[in-house]
């Protein structure tokens, strides 16, 4: 388990490229036959990737959690980025096509992650937050997710935000999760930038070609920094940080949030003349 501690914004001002990457970038989430997890102390979110091949992979509690099983005090959202997946939740099978999502709630004893066909492995991204209430496992296909069309080609940010786990969708205790897909020719996400000091956020950028990159913007509005992100890499966004990106091409990303409230629209928009 890769552990990331919380950083104070005054310290982050002095981070060089290496330190920014060490604390906020997650480079290797997907490896055939393995589950990789990063534990951030921001709202104790666990960010993971699993690539099951011939054998299913059991999602077990790492030592860090000091619990008997992963979901003892947690909930999670899964999104499949690969070939057809089957997630078995306490004996109940859920089939996930590419970009389908599944919520798994507190109290679940056994979660098995499998590929329908090892030659076309599933690629499961997941985010897990602390939970204090039991809610049923529930799947949502991307065509059932609430689509929000935002931006325009003129401002290079035409995109659709699909909300899966949120107030009006799959129910959770505190986790919110969705996918944003940029239209060809659009490269900016979340600009104008916003803040929500009440909630941290994690991004996973995907659908980038091997030599494409996203310049992920972070930091306080008056003191921005960037991290260069490649395909299927994640970024931890502290609650005090803007989170925005510009790509060398269009791309998609999964966003997930945990924290104080449960309101997707809680965004303090940063005025352009504040950004530095
Ligand atoms: O494209 C966007 O804009 C987003 O996807 C924004 C995120 O959903 C977000 O930051 C929610 O707080
Ligand atoms: Zn946000």
From TrEMBL:
Pathway(s) served: Glycan metabolism; pectin degradation; 2-dehydro-3-deoxy-D-gluconate from pectin: step 4/5
The alphabetical list of record keywords is:
Isomerase, Metal-binding, Zinc
* Gene3D superfamilies found in the cross-reference section: Jelly Rolls (2.60.120.10), pectin degrading enzyme 5-keto 4- deoxyuronate isomerase, domain 1 (2.60.120.520)
Cofactor comment text: Binds 1 zinc ion per subunit.
Q: Which cofactor does it need?
A: Zn(2+)
Annotated signal sequence is none
Give the EC number: 5.3.1.17
In alphabetical order, the GO MF annotations are: 4-deoxy-L-threo-5-hexosulose-uronate ketol-isomerase activity
Q: Where does Zn(2+) bind?
A: 194, 196, 201, 243
Out of the domains of life, which is the source?
Bacteria
Q: Which family does it belong to?
A: Belongs to the KduI family.
What role is this protein assigned?
Answer: Catalyzes the isomerization of 5-dehydro-4-deoxy-D-glucuronate to 3-deoxy-D-glycero-2,5-hexodiulosonate.
State the name under which the record lists this protein. Answer: 4-deoxy-L-threo-5-hexosulose-uronate ketol-isomerase
Give the species: Paenibacillus sepulcri
Name the gene: kduI
